[in-house]
Amino acid sequence: MMAAMPDALTPASADDLVAALAFALRFQGRKRVHNADEIMAEIVARRLAEHLSRAGFVVMKRPSEVGAAALGRGFEG
Questions:
Q1: Is residue 8 in a domain?
Q2: Count of domains observed in the chain
Q3: Residue 6 maps to a domain
Q4: Cβ distance 25 to 46 under 8 Å?
């Protein structure tokens, strides 16, 4: 059974959301974590992707345009 929700709920501000996400990225539980930038980017991407998946979001991708793969590999035709 789910607990009753308080009547005085209001939308979180963007600043509140940023502060909560920044805290989650700096701490694991109550322990401060220190990582290099590359590692941090991987951690952030993974956490955000996992959260979006749990929240029911679906990210769609368009098919690449004709020749886009070759251009991405440096083709200068």
A1: no
A2: 1
A3: no
A4: no
